[in-house]
Amino acid sequence: MSEYLPITPAEIRAQALEAAQAGAAILHLHARDPSDGRPTPKPEVFREFVPDIARETDAVINISTGGSTRMSLDERLAYARFARPEMCSLNMGSMNFSLHPIAEKMTSWRFDWEKEYVEGMEDMIFRNTFRDIKNILTEFRDHGTRFEFECYDVGHLYNLAHFVDAGLIKPPFFIQSVFGILGGIGADPENLSVMRAAADRLFGRENYHFSILGAGRHQMPLVTMGTILGGNVRVGLEDSVYLSKGVKAKSNAEQVRKIRRILEELSFEIASPAEARQMLGLKGRDAVSF
Known about the structure:
Blueprint: H1 9-22, E1 26-29, H2 43-46, H3 50-56, E2 60-63, H4 73-83, E3 87-91, H5 114-120, H6 130-141, E4 146-151, H7 154-165, E5 173-179, H8 189-203, E6 208-214, H9 219-228, E7 232-233, E8 242-244, E9 247-248, H10 252-265, H11 273-280
């Protein structure tokens, strides 16, 4: 849907560094096959851009353990197991994660694989069972890696609470509340209060950091509202390809600069990478294996 999406390692590196320079404290990274843009879990592709990013910025590097509904769990974890990063994303449950309605709106496709991939999501499940999550938490605890807990619905907060009660997750933890993905909670503004209140009730506000991700056209309004409710923000081309109505974002950094401008106008301060590490209790860049 956007010619500005970074695909090659060089493009991902350049956009990540620009986003960090614009003020992003955490860089949430996926990899793509440079030949056709297909999502890939291959460590050799990650190695073509992650070490370079780490050398050129002190932003926290966050490696996805999501990747794709088409990947096995071992594939999704392959690079994170090698890199032992400060932070990984972790989807807190299995779900009918789908973008298939987008296919009905598309009139042309950039690559041959895309149409079948997007349409096929209607019959695909993103799998993260309780055992999957337990195994990931147990394995990465030994590496000192902490998580961006992606919660796509209220039930995911209760799944998170289950693992907190089991002693596998210690505060302060980082909840990324995701709104507007088909299969998860909708992007209605009222749902921000629902998720925030549930998290407060389950964990106590002093034990977690709340963040907001709004998909598509909901990105900027929802994350702005979430900040007013005491949350942090995540923006980027993974979640929305637009900067404003009908205007495509030419980079992830454009979205970072826009939300930074909005929040600073509202008298909020933008955390540095060092401040983010302190807030989230991260192990530090010197303890990773990029």
